[in-house]
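Q: Here's a chain of 641 amino acids. Please give me its 3D structure as tokens.
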Amino acid sequence: MFILEATTQLSFWGPIVFFCIGVPAALFNIIIFIGFKTFRKSPSAYYVVGQSLLDVSVLLLVLLPVISSVSTSVSSTVCKLGLFLAQVTVSGAMSFLCLTAFDRWACTSRSARIRRLNSNRIARYLGLFTFLFWSFVNIPYLIFCDLIPPTYVCFSTNDVFTKIVFYFLAPIFSTVFPLLVLIIFIVLTHRNIRLIAHIHDQQQPVRTRSSMWEQQMTRMMVAQTILSIFCTLPRAIFYTYSAITLEQNATKSFNQISIELLVDQLTISIMSINFVSSFYIYFLFSPRLRQTIKIHLKSLCHLTPNQVVPIDNSLTIAQNLPSTTPQINNETTLFIWPGLQPWGHDFEPIGNGVLQPVLTYGSSCAPNQNGIDPYQWWISAQYVNTDGNKTGFMGCFGGDVMTVNEGDTLRIEMVKLATSGTWNQTVLNLSNNKTVWFTMDLGKQAQGRQFLIAIVCINGVIVGSIFNVSLLSSSNTILLMNNSCTNCICMTILSQNTQGLNCFPNQSCLFFYNYTFLNTLEISSTSSFHFLSLPPEQETSTDESSQTTQITTATTSIIDNPWICSNMTVLQQKDMPGNDMANEQPKTYTECCIWCLSTSGCRGFVWGWPNNTSSFQQSHCWLKSILVAPTSLAQFTSVHF
């Protein structure tokens, strides 16, 4: 009797507890992975949201029988729909767990072809397919299930379908198959992660915000997958035991049946952890998720008056610089400012703009400069955002301008109002008590990083920029070198020989002596093209093989060499087999070089000559994620860091 009582209490309180714990967690998942761009940009977000929606449905369907006024025995229609929806939601939720494990395996794979499976488009298609598949598979529940007299229990009325459910649908589709899929993909993902860690130890790549977030996503999903395996395994074992001992049911004692009922209920409860645990797992394993929740809960509940401590800075004005100060291109501007900008990944919803009261000597983009002597210090409170794309927050904004004199001391304050997103900047000249200020509402944008910057800005030379593209040209003199994009632009201005350049994320630049409208701009999310003037209608270079141009610096020269590719080693008649990140045909040597430089994790490439005897290998480019000892092979060029 004690065992039966324990089983009854567990079957009553278990669904209630799981509903109270699981539904808020699932709703949190939906809000976070849909509401915040940082989270929803990952394909895993589709699987997490799909699983969370089905988790809510499962917990609700499990809770309804506990409520005395709600029962599947009310009518035949309710019986059929109840069993059908229960099977669709449980199977679908487990399938989304499997898809999450699959997505992490694809994301961490070395194969570029497999990594393409980690995409939002494929995630949408797989999510829709999963729902349609389980709806189709469980249609027999609508046909063969009904109320069975005299007790009017809702169950299958067809003996064949009952056996299919007992021996196949319930144990295989709902437990054993998902369990095997989870185990396979967690093992493969673990192998990929270990290999990536080994490669990173050898190559020490730069960790970007995107790659760090994907690593956190992987940790979250791997932890969820491991927990799901342990929660599903007891149910799979019990199903196996029940199938083996089915013929012995008639001879089982009362105590044995009672124990089996208790174990049945226990394994159901353990498996139900799959439907309530995801949010808590993500919260434990993702610092980024915890930070996001903390920030928005504080903002929602007004727990803190400011996102940052009020900033109070003082600046003392140096002697005015004479108008005869040595200048470049006849105009030089000096900037000194304390600033506040977003920190780390938190650039939503406006972008990486800066609150900055700027002390200026010269001209700038700030408004209200009419009547200001360009050869005198002046200051205004500003907000500058050249990195965002939200209307109303792009460009230079500022208040009134105040001129200052040598020896003046300025007191600068930046404070956020407690009940809104409004920031107030105030500049007080303590020498004459004059004040300028600027107020701007940044909404929910965090400004958590403080800094002090002094800059000498060369104006008078307009540099055009086209982002997310790279210029393709194999006919111009080229130099590729490791340096920041800003330094490369300055070198282009000072050289008076180069006309444009491509900037790549691995601190490399590709310089052009000249280019024309005939050259191609290729879309590339990781590079940018910068130019000093519009291209002429035709090529101006006449003898590229003998052309050599010097940039006036101590260490840099631009040399015409068609095989130069950054600081990589070029090996002719060599191949580096295997370890392909991606491959594409046709590509020129320069295009292949640019592709590698703009691809994160590329350690080198192999390029097939256009006259290669194999048409498949002609002008074919293979990017390499791992370097191996080169082997001799005619009509190939191997290039590596």
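Q: Can you summarize the key feature?
A: The mean pLDDT is 76.
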